[in-house]
Design goal:
Blueprint (H helix, E strand, L loop, with lengths): L1 H20 L15 E11 L2 E11 L4 E9 L3 E12 L2 E6 L9 E12 L2 E7 L10 E3 L2
Antiparallel strand pairs: 1-2, 1-8, 2-3, 3-4, 4-5, 5-6, 6-7, 7-8
Length: 141
């Protein structure tokens, strides 16, 4: 009888350890909770047999405004934008106001994902069906 109870207790402990010890890595977090802050990313590419890269910095403020700057190498060009953002679920709507009369008020609806991996907190902003082409931006601490 004691052996049967001991086996049952050991089985119960083993099942508890298995369920408590299992967790998902790289799991996306609540999208509304932590987009505020500065995010930086880099994308390497080859175009016309020339290696280059682009760096992107996105800053989301708590007042619903954002700033974005892009640097392109080897062109040595910088592009800056700003505007407002609205979040609805995993969708983010960016309304650009960069001072150019042709671009004022341009609206882009994108999807985004916030998560955590071995490098830290990450943000992916992408158009529908193009997630694999988006590059990851990491939160600057």
């Amino acid at each position: 009888m004691k052996v049967k109870n001991l086996k049952s207790m050991l089985l119960l402990v083993a099942i508890t350890v298995v369920f408590v010890g299992c967790s998902k890595d790289d799991e996306p977090t609540n999208p509304n909770s932590s987009i505020i802050g500065t995010w930086k990313g880099r994308h390497d590419y080859i175009e016309n047999n020339i290696e280059g890269y682009s760096e992107l910095t996105m800053i989301f403020h708590s007042n619903g405004k954002f700033e974005m700057s892009k640097y392109f190498f080897p062109d040595d060009e910088t592009d800056e934008d700003s505007g407002t953002y609205k979040i609805n679920g995993n969708k983010i709507t960016l309304t650009f106001y960069d001072g150019d009369k042709y671009d004022d008020g341009d609206i882009e609806e994108c999807f985004f994902e916030i998560g955590k991996d071995s490098k830290g907190d990450y943000l992916i902003v992408y158009y529908e069906g193009e997630k694999e082409d988006a590059f990851i931006k990491y939160k600057v601490k």
